[in-house]
Amino acid sequence: MLGSVNYVTPNINNQPWDLDLSGLDFEDYISSVIEYALVPYYASGLTVKRTPQTRDQGKDLIIRSTTPFSLFGKDFSLYEKDSICVYIEFKSSKSSKISLDKFSKNLLLANKSGIDYFVLITNTSIVPFSYYEARRNAQENGYIFYLVDQYKLVCFLKEMLALHSEYCAPEDVSAISINYQVDFGKKNGRPLLDLYLFFRNNTDTPQICRFQLKSDRNWLLSETEFEVFLEAGDADCRCIRVT
Fold first, then answer.
1. 3-state secondary structure string, 66-108?
2. Is 220 exposed, middle or buried (CB count within 10 Å of its CB: 0-12, 13-18, 19+)?
3. Fewest CB atoms within 10 Å of the CB: 26, 50, 54, 78?
4. What is the pLDDT of residues 43-52, one digit of tens each?
């Protein structure tokens, strides 16, 4: 059973945002800003296509490019390919977080599409377990999962001078944000926990996170010391088995 999300550093993705856009309006507005942000790359062979509002086969926006490009502060590389394909999916919500079931169908469709990147854009955020599963699924199917949630989306809109509605910026933004979620279970009649440790880089430079974990009870951790390298603006999630 999955528990609630706990925060080691302040939660920067639940700020008051008087966003009066939802559903197709949210999708249409952010799509327009993305299309404008990518204008400098059009002459180099980048194209952006909006999918039909119904039967979109799991993606709202398709970017194809024969040149590397940057978007949301992230570099989209060719990785020695002649061209790359990026699927973008929009999920707006009035809740503080969206769960995996809200976009799992999109991931399953992406698995069969031979894409290079899948970008999830939301005005809220997702829980650590959802991020872990989405990223693991993407790696198994040969593409990269990238999350653009509230704080990162607002930074992008501010950079493009396109922030919509009033937004209350967080007072304390750590260079590295950390939160976690626990999945409670049993094995051979004994309790066990899966600890989903979610960390993200909120800066424009790469960061290395070094972790030392220990328990004040008689628990055995599958990992106690490890390092995580995060590109600028990127995130990762580790699953620690506790028995």
1. CCCEEECCEEECCCCCCCEEEEEEEECCCCCCECHHHCHHHHH
2. exposed
3. 54
4. 999 999 998 8
pLDDT of residue 164: 80
Do 158 and 8 meet the contact criterion of CB atoms below 8 Å apart?
Answer: no
What is each CA distance from 199 to 27, 77, 236, in whole angstroms? Answer: 27, 23, 6
- 11-55 pLDDT, tens digit each: 999 999 988 877 889 999 999 999 999 999 999 999 999 988 655
**pTM of the prediction?**
0.92
- C-beta of residue 134 within 8 angstroms of C-beta of residue 100: yes
**In this structure, what is the dihedral angle of CA atoms 160, 19, 90, 136, given to the nearest 10 degrees?**
90
Between CA 239 and CA 32 the distance in angstroms is 37
Distances (CA, A) of 21 to 28, 54, 77, 162, 200: 9, 19, 31, 13, 26
Q: What is the C-alpha separation between 171 and 166, in angstroms, rounded?
A: 16
**Best CA proximity match to 167, nearest among 18, 26, 25:** 18
Query: CA-to-CA distance for 160 and 163, rounded, in angstroms?
Result: 8
Q: 212: helix, coil or strand?
A: strand
Cβ proximity of 27 and 59 under 8 Å? no
